[in-house]
Protein backbone atom coordinates (compact mmCIF):
# COMPACT_ATOMS: atom_id res chain seq x y z
CA UNK A 1 0.00 0.00 0.00
CA UNK A 2 1.35 3.45 -0.90
CA UNK A 3 0.18 5.00 2.39
CA UNK A 4 2.18 2.51 4.46
CA UNK A 5 5.29 3.03 2.32
CA UNK A 6 4.97 6.81 2.77
CA UNK A 7 4.65 6.45 6.55
CA UNK A 8 7.69 4.14 6.64
CA UNK A 9 9.75 6.73 4.74
CA UNK A 10 8.70 9.53 7.12
CA UNK A 11 9.51 7.44 10.22
CA UNK A 12 12.89 6.44 8.78
CA UNK A 13 13.73 10.09 8.19
CA UNK A 14 12.55 11.39 11.58
CA UNK A 15 13.41 8.60 14.01
CA UNK A 16 16.46 6.51 14.87
CA UNK A 17 16.62 3.29 16.88
CA UNK A 18 18.48 3.43 20.18
CA UNK A 19 22.08 2.25 20.13
CA UNK A 20 22.57 -1.35 21.27
CA UNK A 21 18.84 -1.56 22.01
CA UNK A 22 19.38 -0.12 25.50
CA UNK A 23 16.47 2.29 25.52
CA UNK A 24 14.16 -0.21 23.81
CA UNK A 25 12.67 2.31 21.44
CA UNK A 26 13.23 5.07 18.96
CA UNK A 27 14.49 8.60 19.38
CA UNK A 28 13.83 11.70 17.33
CA UNK A 29 16.66 12.64 14.99
CA UNK A 30 17.86 16.24 15.16
CA UNK A 31 16.95 18.36 12.14
CA UNK A 32 20.64 18.92 11.35
CA UNK A 33 21.33 15.17 11.25
CA UNK A 34 18.67 14.12 8.77
CA UNK A 35 20.93 14.51 5.77
CA UNK A 36 20.25 15.40 2.15
CA UNK A 37 18.50 12.12 1.25
CA UNK A 38 14.75 11.63 1.11
CA UNK A 39 13.14 15.00 1.92
CA UNK A 40 9.71 13.57 2.78
CA UNK A 41 8.57 15.37 5.96
CA UNK A 42 4.89 14.60 6.39
CA UNK A 43 2.72 11.57 5.61
CA UNK A 44 -0.25 13.93 5.15
CA UNK A 45 1.31 16.10 2.44
CA UNK A 46 4.12 14.40 0.52
CA UNK A 47 5.14 17.63 -1.22
CA UNK A 48 5.67 19.64 2.00
CA UNK A 49 9.30 20.19 3.00
CA UNK A 50 11.16 21.40 6.08
CA UNK A 51 12.06 25.07 5.67
CA UNK A 52 14.10 27.57 7.65
CA UNK A 53 14.54 31.29 7.10
CA UNK A 54 15.65 34.14 9.37
CA UNK A 55 15.51 31.96 12.48
CA UNK A 56 12.01 30.63 11.78
CA UNK A 57 11.47 26.97 10.91
CA UNK A 58 8.39 25.20 9.54
CA UNK A 59 7.18 22.24 7.53
CA UNK A 60 5.26 23.23 4.43
CA UNK A 61 5.88 25.47 1.47
CA UNK A 62 7.95 28.55 0.76
CA UNK A 63 6.24 31.28 -1.23
CA UNK A 64 8.34 33.73 -3.20
CA UNK A 65 6.85 37.15 -3.72
CA UNK A 66 7.95 39.84 -6.09
Please describe what this structure looks like:
This protein is 20% helix and 24% strand. The protein has one helix at residues 2-14, and strands spanning 15-17, 26-28, 49-53, 56-60. The strands form two sheets. The chain has a two-stranded antiparallel ribbon. A two-stranded antiparallel ribbon has the order 3-4. Strand 1 (15-17) and strand 2 form a beta hairpin. It is flat and about 50 Å long. The chain starts with a helix and ends in a 6-residue tail after the last strand. The mean pLDDT is 76.
Supply database-style keywords.
single chain; alpha+beta; 1 helix
How helical, in percent, are the residues? 10-25%
Structural class: alpha+beta
How many strands appear in the DSSP assignment?
Answer: 4
Order of helices and strands: HEEEE
Average of the residue pLDDT scores: 76
| Gyration radius, rounded | 14 Å
Amino acid sequence: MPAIETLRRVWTRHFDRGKDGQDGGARLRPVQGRGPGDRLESPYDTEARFRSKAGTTWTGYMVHTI
